[in-house]
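so my prof wants the structure for this chain in the tokens format not the other one, which i didnt know existed until like an hour ago. anyway here's the sequence
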Amino acid sequence: MGYYAKVSLHLCQKNITMPVNRNALLRMRTIDGCLRRRHRSWTIEDLRSACEDALYEYEGTSGVSLRTIQRDIELMRSDKLGYNAPIEVVDRKYYRYADPDYSISSLPLTHEELSELTGALDILSQYSGFRGLSGLDETLTRIEDRIRSGSEGQ
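here's what i got, hopefully its the right format
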């Protein structure tokens, strides 16, 4: 079974669905970035505008509806993608994370996931030193450090 098939199977077993497309992921990462900047109050219109700017910058497209942003926030709050983002509305107008340290890009891994990553890292490390993979050693070291720091924090 190929790598992508295993990832898809793993996600199905965990009942996790991926964003429908790259634009959805970009919008959710943009919303996440906005909500982490707590020095500012974010309305739904502010979030829509930030997503529109990001899509234009990265994809050359524009035009994001308020309803799309509302659906993205709803999806981020849910367990469908595993985010369970603690997004709250303040004064019935402003969005923010209830937990100021939360981010969708720093979700904790389970012990099983850390074990799977360690196994994958062992396999990848066998390819270090091959021609054409000059940056692999540095990348593997960074991944290994991340896995270690993730397992120590749990």
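also thought this was worth mentioning. The chain has six helices and two strands.
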